[in-house]
Amino acid sequence: MSSSDLKVISEHKTDGIFEELKDLQRRFRHLPVPELIKIAKRRELDYRDLYSIASHYPHFHLEPPARVAVKVCDDMSCHLRGAPELKTKLERRFQGVSGHDLSIGTVSCVGRCDHAPCMVINDRYYDGFTPEHAVDAVTTTLSGHPPEESKYRRREIKLKSDPYNGQRSYAALRKYVHSRDWPGLLAMIKAAGLRGMGGAGFPTHHKWQTVSNSRESEKYVICNADESEPGTLKDRFILTQLPHLVIEGMVLAGLCVGARRGYLYIRHEYQEQREILIEELNRCGEENLIGSSILGTDLSFELVIFDSPGGYICGEETALLEVIEGKRAEPRTKPPFLAKVGLWGKPTIVNNVETLAFAAAIAAQGADWFTSHGVKPCKGLKFVGVSGDVEKPGMFEVPMGITYRDLVHEFAGGPLDGRSIIAFAPSGPSSGYLPASMLDLPLDWEKLKDAGSMVGSGAIVVCTEGRCMLDMAFNAVRFYRNESCGKCVPCRIGSQKLVEILQRWIEGEHQPTDVQVVEELSHALRQTSICGLGQILPKPLESVMKYFPEEIEQHLQQRRCSAGTCFKEVRA
Ligand SMILES: Cc1cc2nc3c(=O)[nH]c(=O)nc-3n(C[C@H](O)[C@H](O)[C@H](O)COP(=O)(O)O)c2cc1C
Ligand code: SF4
Ligand code: FES
User: Fold this and answer.
1) 195 φ/ψ angles, rounded to the nearest 5 degrees
2) 552 lies in some domain
């Protein structure tokens, strides 16, 4: 790190604040007020400002938690694969245990949707448990012997995206450091048609070109590894299997646009992946591929791993910048766009893990290599996760243009227990649900957009017969309500209002004006929310109202749920 960088960082009173708060929580299991006051004094912060930061993140406890705190994920994939039954079993089995000893609650998607259902006990992660396993795990933790955490299942596979056959030679970085043909690299990324894999599909070369054009001397590159949307699994897989490509992509992006510092922003639940990255970074340091005087030249690029303090909204690119700046994860209004005014007000590239890995693969093998993949007329590769009601939930590297039907049948083992598929979400709650009749749509940015959905981050969630689509809409809207940062009124109030309406529908009550209120609220959310979370929030419900009108009708008019899921107590 150069002395000017050090100066910039030391000027920020909240630098490193989350690590300090995490450390405090590790020592006391919560954040005691006298300790917070000490931190505020030392950092010359107003205590209220520090409190406002700490209270923003659900991961930080302002009160001491129960001796054993159990949280069950009940978002889309876990909901489909037994989370409600698991939670009910725990609540019944441990009824009467004091709140001091045990609490049982919920947690938002923890990024293990392919091994659903998932739960967290005292910050230890468990997946694929039956209700009986869960009872055993809680019992042993209560007795002071927590079971081993579930480990990531690393796979020995050859991936088309890996140009180095596992050798990790960083040949592309070596080539470009010596040639310095940055305009050539930009042209190659453009020719490959690489798009942002974080969900929006924005052309990658465009961002890089804008930052490259800036005359500012200080610029940043950020890899977004926050991955918190239900069903999204791909970044964890890429960070595990291809960490070298993510690092190489970041360094290439930095050198190409003139940035000397990058942050790899990783969700705090991905500790195994963090360790893999640190090991790989150490290797890069030893080989002089990163840091100052890269490969003996005057080029330099520092890469810092930044642990997210947690929350889906932290993955929104402007909220992510606020977090790195040590603030609440509240999105900024755009414009100005980050390529012009980003981290600390400087031009910044934010790219998804997969985008950066593909950028490195393209730099190594050329644009033609990338475009040679794909089912015509689509070009390129994509990593997708398939979860929910399928036989083999998991992560797959597939050609663009493959149909969702082939994806589910050929890669994910087909629908669970041979049941019929009734619906699928092409990309978690953000894409809404499409009916099974649309399974022949190809994995194609434009075709999905025309269908009113999106390829997004490729978080495919499958629902089979016996599922209630109103219940699935409720589940998705509730996720957004839980994850709203609360900065803007439409999203803060609107999400709660939608959840309340849906909860009533599920419990068999509705008012004649409800549908109109839903439509007006949805319009207001789309038009006036500051960020994508609020704008997309109505999507799951709208899609169910559009494609499954008879299910809504049955619920509202006949008080009938053909899946037998509704009309009992539902906890929002
Ligand atoms: C609520 C919300 C959460 C998001 N979470 C992520 C995330 O976890 N990872 C990600 O890459 N992009 C996420 N995005 C999209 C980012 O804002 C941004 O578009 C992306 O990181 C840009 O990278 P790309 O161009 O390579 O896709 C999120 C967007 C919203 C609105
Ligand atoms: S739309 Fe929701 S998540 Fe986004 S800034 Fe507003 S309140 Fe926060
Ligand atoms: S881990 Fe539960 S939905 Fe992702």
Assistant:
1) -120, 160
2) yes
Specify the length of the chain in residues.
Answer: 572
Q: What is the Å distance from ligand 1's center to 372 Cα?
A: 27
pLDDT band at 23 (very low <50, low <70, confident <90, very high): very high
| Distance in Å, CA 504 to ligand 1 centroid | 32
Q: Which residues contact 33 (CB under 8 A, 6 or more apart)?
A: none
Whole-Å CA distances, 149 to 75, 121, 124, 319, 380: 20, 9, 6, 30, 36
Tell me the DSSP string of 457-507.
Answer: T-EEEEEETT--HHHHHHHHHHHHHHH----SHHHHHHHHHHHHHHHHHHT
Closest C-alpha among 79, 383, 91, 92 to residue 242: 383
430 and 515 share one domain: no
- Number of domain units in the chain: 4
Q: What does the pLDDT look like over 244-279, one tens digit per residue?
A: 999 999 999 999 999 999 999 999 999 999 999 999
Q: Which ligand is nearest to the CA of 84?
A: 3
Strands 434-435 and 394-399: unpaired
What SS3 state is found at 565? coil
Q: Give the distance (Å) from ligand 3 centre to CA of residue 77.
A: 5
Q: Do 186 and 212 meet the contact criterion of CB atoms below 8 Å apart?
A: yes
CATH of the domain at 255: 3.40.50.11540
Give bridge partners of residue 220 from the DSSP assignment.
261, 348
Residues 431 and 475 both lie in one domain: no
Which CATH number fits the domain that encloses residue 110?
3.40.30.10
Ligand 3 centroid from CA 159, angstroms: 25
496 located within any domain: yes
Q: How far is CA 191 from CA 160, 180, 188, 205, 371, in A?
A: 19, 19, 5, 9, 9
Final residue of a structural domain among 464, 493, 520: 464
- Helix (H) or strand (E) run with residue 110 in it: none
Domain of 503 in residue numbering reads as: 469-558
For the entire predicted model, the pTM comes to: 0.96
Residues whose beta carbon lies within 6 Å of some atom of ligand 1? 196-200, 202, 224, 226-228, 312-313, 315-317, 350-352, 355, 531-533
88 and 191 in a single domain? The answer is no
Query: What's the CA gap between 468 and 561, in Å, rounded?
Result: 7
Pocket of ligand 3 (CB under 6 A): 73, 75-78, 109-113, 116, 118, 230
Characterise 126 by phi-psi region: left (phi > 0), alpha (psi -120 to 50), beta (else).
beta
Q: Which of 392, 393, 87 is nearest to 230 (CA)?
A: 393
**Contact status, residue 140 vs residue 127, Cβ threshold 8 Å:** no
Residues 6+ apart with CB under 8 A from 302: 1, 5, 260, 261, 262, 290, 291, 292
Amino acid type, 417 = D
Give the dihedral sign, CA 114/116/119/124: negative
In tens, the pLDDT along 481-534 reads 999 999 999 999 999 999 999 999 999 899 999 999 999 999 999 999 999 999
Are 339 and 401 in the same domain? Answer: no
